[in-house]
Amino acid sequence: MPKIELQQDELFRYSGRKFSADELEEALTIAKAEIDDPVDEDGLIKIELNDTNRPDLWSTAGLGRALRLYHGSGSAGRYGFFSRPDSPVAAGDRRIVVDPELSERRPYITAFAISGPPIADVLLDDLIQTQEKLCWNYGRKRKAIAMGVYREDKIQYPIRYKAVDPDSTTFVPLGLDSELSLRQIIEQHPKGREFGGIVAALDKFPFLTDNSGAVLSFPPVINSADVGAVQAGDTSLFIEMTGTDLKPLLLACSIVACDLADAGYTVHPVQVEYPYDTPFGRTVVSPLYFQQPVSVELAYAERLLGAELNADEAVQRLGKMGVRAEAASGVITAYPPEYRNDFLHPVDVVEDLMIGYGMNAFPSEAPRDFTVGRLTEAEIFSREVKTLLVGMGYQEMIFNYLGSRRDFIDNMYPEEQRATAAADCVRIANPMSENFEFVRPSIVPQLLGAESVSAHAVYPHYIFEVGKVAVRDADDNYGSRTVTTLGAVVADADAGFNLVSSQAAALFFYLGLTYEPSVVDDPRFLAGRVAALLVKGERVGILGELHPQVLENWGVTVPCAVIELDLDLLRRVGGSD
Amino acid sequence: MRTDEDIKSLHPLEVTVLRRYDAADVLSASALQRDLGLNVGQSNQALSWLAARDSLQEHNRSILTRYEITDLGRDYAEHGTPEERVQAAAREHGPLPLPRIAELTELPNKDVGSAFGKLSKLGILGMDGEKQVSYAAGPEPSAAQADIDLVRALLRRAAAAPQGLLEENELSDDERRLIGEISKKRGASGAAFRVVESEIVEYTLTESGMALRAAVEAAGLSGEEVGALTPAMLRDGSWKGKSFRSYSIHVPPSRLLIGRRNPYCSYLDQVKDKLVSLGFEEFDGPLVETEFWNSDALFMPQFHSARDIHDVYYVADPTHAQEIQEPFLSRVAATHEDGWETGSSGWDYGFDRDFTRRLILRSQGTVMSAKTLHQAKVPGKYFGILRCFRYDQVDATHLSDFYQTEGIVLGEDVNLRTLMGMLEMFAVELAGATDVKCVPGYFPFTEPSVEIHIKHPELGWFELGGAGIFRPEVTEPMGVSVPVLAWGLGIDRMALMHLGLNDLRELFSPNIENVRLRTGKQAG
């Protein structure tokens, strides 16, 4: 979820009013926003925005606009520079011509220009932050949306958006003073290393020049050091966005255009000419209002909100959310603002109604339906087992489920068996660290982990856990099974087979079950002091004395005896009497 | 002074001693042995216990010298000292050469030589030019002869004394002189006595000792009180008429290691029980899941930023589930693409049916809410406390795996207001909240969505959880047409407070001693 840092005074200017700290906290709830860091001595405040579908709120102007519409006297303004799919605004000379070779590479570009008073530092900072947040959070780290800002007075229209050879094409990127090829940029330039991966596999790279051949940028990586170097004091800017899907690009373009219009600039549309089809034809003028109205039956909204609504008031309440709406015969038709595209379903209008009315309009009500509560069978059985273990003097433990190869495999098995043991485990393909690479296949390693850090605790140690483990199972749809498991360890000078054998017998007796011990070969245990436990021929678990090599691997210097049981299987075979 | 309490901690030996002696008496180990018939160990023990509780004060400390007869001394006592034996041999068989005397007396030559030397110096024996020894003294008793007899008498007395001991201060001056001589003769062939020196401490009763004594008498303690009640006493009835020693209840008890639940697990159980009591049925499922159930079925677009490789753990092998259950796969795919029959516009992209089978570790408990929908009862309430996995650096506030508490409510009449009513119920029942506030929230799968903030009596205001009404894009592909409330609660913060911890990692501590000592507050 994005966090933005902004000048509180600027926010108040866009909001049309001031707020105290408490008022602001409360006021921000309508934007699902909260104060992350309160205002500091430089007037900066940090705000977290929770709605990932509302990128229009991720700027000072956008957030200020939402506060003005809801808490101020403002009404939803109209932005006259928007084209509609069937009625484009004249763009004049401001044209971009797209190379046919981009259709399979990075096919779409949207753009507009602004002119007005010299750009102040604070606005430039905000514009750069908007660019970052839009491209990083909404534009998936520039993959879907990359934005470039340029000095328009250095540009000769029409602009050329083309695909070029990465090795023979060179220019001076921002931050350097010598020419590099596009290939060198993605290999050497910091921005190239960060974002070059988006285009690295392409045979030709996207490239933006003006009509004279002056380089604007190498999208989505880096601007040129000349046209692409914007400074405070500039009075006209050209802004473009390239990407893979047209609608998100158009929305991002609309958001930035509305922000700059609210900041007092004149927005000039730009016409993009494609040699291939797009969802909006081959000639697309942006900013474009492409959103569709959404209709919601008032009765549907009333059902979800649990309150009666008046149609006219509902329309007015949507206005506070910046949503133009009209009501006719029990249906409200909502027109999303130009800078929003989060109305996928009528429920999205219902939520704006909820916020528009305010939470106080919907007093809470106790649920009325009667339902029967119950625990899962596995939980009930687990609790029975835990009660018995506690009765035998065991301390219950609880562990994390992720661990390392060393813990789960190397420390437990002799070298020649480790590959097989690892193959039985669920392994993570993209672990954050080798300490959390495997899902545990057994509880015993972690019980030994506890022993290895607890030599100072008075002996004897009786410890257990009932929890989940995951084991590979080729027959399963997911290739693995999650198993509710009991693991118990006794660490004591006298801990041995006979002790855990007696405990298992007692446990089974009180669970109303009987087991047959069976000889088993398991290198984790001392040979001849380990038994598999069979119930009705099914192997439900194992008990025995751990091999001294295993104890040595863990740095445990006290003998340990173990019981481990598959409680799911035990419950199934035991319950089938 | 707590004499009433003190007398309960008195050992019977202490009681016996206190009753026997008064303020003017001097107590010592030998006195106790003499007066009470105790052995040395009992005497010393009783004195040290009483001294430790300040009932006795030191009166005098002295060195007691005693002479303990050796094995050699016992031999002399029985058969005579070398002086006696050599003298007798010379008188009865003399004149004789020294070797011959040695043969007759069965003494080593060396002892015969030194006995002769001593006797000849005293004029009792003499030797001629032929080295023949003969008796030289007259018939009248001499002082020298008296000494020899006295030594023999000492030896006999010692041999008959308890432990073969003679106390120096009980000997006459002559005896003390003579025993000193024969005791000092260490080395060559040993001595008849060994010198034993020991420290004698004498005590008198202190004021508090006297008070204790009075308390003992007042309580009628005899020192004969029974300590442990034994099965034998019960069998033969010998307990009857006996009084039993009172124990001190202030002695710190010794530590007991008991079997015990883990307090964090107990806390989770309490939450489960509370939810069951509110009519919720528990659900559970596998740790390994598909992208389909983890996110697609929740209408999170496959390009959503929270579905990046750095947000979810992918399973290495196998990488994909064999299949996704129909008709859910087709319906969800269509819903993502164009909204299917849900009334939604969908996300307007090509749904990836390969990616949707990708196996991952469950990253949110909402998976089980999604999986439960198609088999849920209406009305129905469900919950789960489910282990989830996150691609996070582990620190005090982030874990690689942790529990999420999630659930759903299905019903014809559920709505935003009953949702908030339910959240308020959770806030009061589960968190003991004193105040509740709902604000608009955002979750990809609910619309409308709210966050619930509560005022906790100890933690103050914090966000207890989030909730909302499942989007129709989530419920309708599962064949559910009634509204479904979905909720999630962050209970770990309350769990930490409950356990007095401030680091999430501590919830899963492997340290046995820490876990043993950890106590949860009782559920209020």
Concise structural overview:
Chain A has 577 residues and is α+β, with helices and mostly antiparallel strands. In chain A, 30% of the residues lie in helices and 27% in strands. Chain A has four domains: 3-71, Phenylalanyl-tRNA Synthetase, Chain B, domain 1; 95-286, 3-Layer(bba) Sandwich (Phenylalanyl-tRNA Synthetase, Chain B, domain 3), CATH 3.50.40.10; 294-359, Phenylalanyl-tRNA Synthetase, Chain B, domain 1 (2-Layer Sandwich); 377-575, Bira Bifunctional Protein, Domain 2 (BirA Bifunctional Protein, domain 2).
Descriptive account of the structure:
The complex is a heterodimer of chains A (577) and B (524). With 577 residues, chain A is of the alpha+beta class. Chain A has four domains: 3-71, Phenylalanyl-tRNA Synthetase, Chain B, domain 1, CATH 3.30.56.10; 95-286, Phenylalanyl-trna Synthetase, Chain B, domain 3 (Phenylalanyl-tRNA Synthetase, Chain B, domain 3, 3-Layer(bba) Sandwich), CATH 3.50.40; 294-359, Phenylalanyl-tRNA Synthetase, Chain B, domain 1 (2-Layer Sandwich), CATH 3.30.56; 377-575, BirA Bifunctional Protein, domain 2, CATH 3.30.930. In chain A, 30% of the residues lie in helices and 27% in strands. Chain A contains 17 helices and 28 strands. In chain A, the strands form six sheets. In chain A, strands 4, 5, 6, 7, 10, 11, 12, 13, 14 and 15 form a ten-stranded mixed beta sheet that branches. In chain A, strands 19-23-24-28-27-26-25 form a seven-stranded mixed beta sheet, with helices on both faces. In chain A, strands 1-3-2 form a three-stranded antiparallel beta sheet. In chain A, a hairpin with a 2-residue loop joins strand 26 and strand 27. The mean pLDDT of chain A is 95. Chain B is α+β, with helices and mostly antiparallel strands and 524 residues long. Chain B has three domains: 3-55 and 206-235, no CATH class; 69-200, Winged helix-like DNA-binding domain superfamily/Winged helix DNA-binding domain (Arc Repressor Mutant, subunit A, Orthogonal Bundle); 265-517, BirA Bifunctional Protein, domain 2 (2-Layer Sandwich), CATH 3.30.930.10. In chain B, 38% of the residues lie in helices and 19% in strands. Chain B has a seven-stranded mixed beta sheet with strand order 6-9-10-14-13-12-11, sandwiched between helices. In chain B, helix 5 (71-79) packs across helix 9 and helix 7 crosses helix 8. The mean pLDDT of chain B is 88.
